[in-house]
Amino acid sequence: MRYKQLGRSGVQVSEIAFGGVEIGMAYGLSMKEAHAPMHEEDAVRLLHKALDKGINFYDTARLYGRSEEIMGKAFEGIRDEVVLASKCRHFRLSDGTLPSSKVLKELVKKSIQESLKALRTDYIDIFMLHYADLEILEIGELYEVFEELMQAGIIRVPGISVYEPEETALALTKGFWKVIQLPFNLMDQRQSAYFEKAEEQGVGLVVRSVLMRGLLTDRSFRLHPALKEVQDHIHLFKALLTNERNNLPALAMQFVSSHQAVSSVLIGIDKQVYLDEAIAYFKGEYLSRSELEMAKELSYPNQAFLNLAQWDKNGWL
Length: 317
Fold this sequence. Notes:
Layout: E1 3-5, E2 12-14, E3 16-19, H1 21-24, H2 40-52, E4 57-59, H3 67-75, E5 83-87, H4 101-119, E6 124-129, H5 134-137, H6 140-151, E7 155-161, H7 165-174, E8 179-183, H8 195-201, E9 204-208, H9 228-234, H10 248-257, E10 262-268, H11 272-281, H12 289-297, H13 308-313
Helix pairs in contact: 2-3, 3-4, 4-6
């Protein structure tokens, strides 16, 4: 296992980050394909095996079902061996609006107390806003409450989780957030426009959606007819397969790790076989410069179309 500095945060993390959503709640490519979460005992055992394999970075969230509770049980007594990242509750109300700034500050404080209790710890290494959109990033009171929590020693490093490239761009101009979790993969490479700036500012990048919730696997052979162009395009990446890198998941993961600005790659793991496969893919032998250029050229032409949540609503998944 290789380890990297998480930007200039002072935190060192494994190249693989264990994604905790699957162990805590029903999850899948779409709602109709969502599967039940693991039994607690099996999940704890898997977390221990991941740690034994060298994975020290674990990502969870207040809204990931029982994920925090299970991690708390798994790592009680060995807290100093792991780096825990969690995210606070969502801010937006059912009608899409935001509560007042005062309410938001209290929500953050309440949310982190819930996380501390569930995780059985008195601090969280990286605590993130779960979805920091453009409006949320402009709320000054959120910076105040995160600063208070850092001064109190409850948070080591402040971070955010974003979706859109413009959110990453705005976050970097703020100069406050030390970790950004963002989507980036073979098909959708828009976020890479800000990798260099993140490196310059010492901001650690944690990448998720590496496999597009399973689309960059054999699952791509069974897509809805409305996604035929997407399916056909995914198959173009076979040109980058080699004898050692002989499947799409290996290519997808190694592609992301080939970017120097990326500190860790978030992999959803809920089976021993997925853990073993992920570790096998991360060997420190990744894409060459020419292969990276080819991968860049092969990114999907209309990347804004790659909205899995909307596809699910449309019944395409």
